[in-house]
TrEMBL record:
Source organism superkingdom: Bacteria
Any single Pfam family the record assigns to this protein: DUF2017
Protein source organism: Nocardioides albidus
InterPro entries: AosR
This protein's name: DUF2017 domain-containing protein
Top-level taxonomy: Bacteria, Bacillati, Actinomycetota, Actinomycetes, Propionibacteriales
Length: 194
């Protein structure tokens, strides 16, 4: 199991070594997030004319139906539905694209580090080295992944006793272990880039 991220001794880069299982799990979670972000009709199709695409403010004006997407894209104005709709129309498409790019960066870095398309060896490890800018992108992706998984699991503050009382073979307990592992990775990444 990975020991988390650490700062490289001679540079500003941060490094981590993942088992092939861990790296493949991260890739899978990031891919699922990208799919979720691009699966709703709220994503504006890419126009052929770049100027027209830049001036297209036909984004969504209502909250997404999916609870994860509602958590990732909350209303900016809780007491003003019209202002919230306007804000969402002008910003949500770009925010979705940014979150999808961050998750895609996680996938790209893992694959560039040697994660094969179909991992087979249990003893294989993947060494990941992130420059400061890429480390910030990974932190954003970890935040989104934790929000998504925590929302699906309905994790609440102070409910640790419930999660620890579940048997290890309960799928909810296993998913919660992944949620905590993502938190551990995020925490070590924050510590390594300070």
């Amino acid at each position: 199991m990975t020991s988390g991220f650490v700062r490289h001794r001679r540079s500003k880069r941060v490094i981590a070594t993942f088992t092939v299982f861990e790296a493949d799990l991260l890739r899978s979670l990031a891919a699922q997030l990208v799919e979720l972000l691009h699966n709703e009709s709220a994503v504006v199709p890419i126009e052929t004319d770049p100027l027209e695409a830049m001036l297209d403010f036909s984004g969504p004006t209502t909250e997404p139906d999916d609870p994860v997407l509602r958590r990732l894209f909350p209303n900016a104005y809780r007491d003003d539905a019209e202002a919230a709709g306007d804000f969402r129309r002008y910003t949500e498409s770009a925010l979705r694209d940014g979150k999808a790019r961050a998750a895609g960066t996680v996938i790209d870095v893992l694959e560039e580090a040697g994660l094969p398309p179909e991992p087979t060896g249990e003893d294989l490890t993947i060494d990941v080295e992130l420059d400061p800018d890429t480390a910030l992108v990974w932190m954003r992706a970890f935040t989104d992944l934790r929000l998504a998984l925590g929302t699906r699991l309905e994790v609440e503050e102070g409910d640790e006793d419930y999660w620890y009382s579940l048997p290890d073979d309960d799928p909810r307990a296993q998913a919660h272990h992944i949620y905590e592992w993502l938190g551990f990775l995020q925490e070590t990444l924050v510590g390594a880039i300070r």
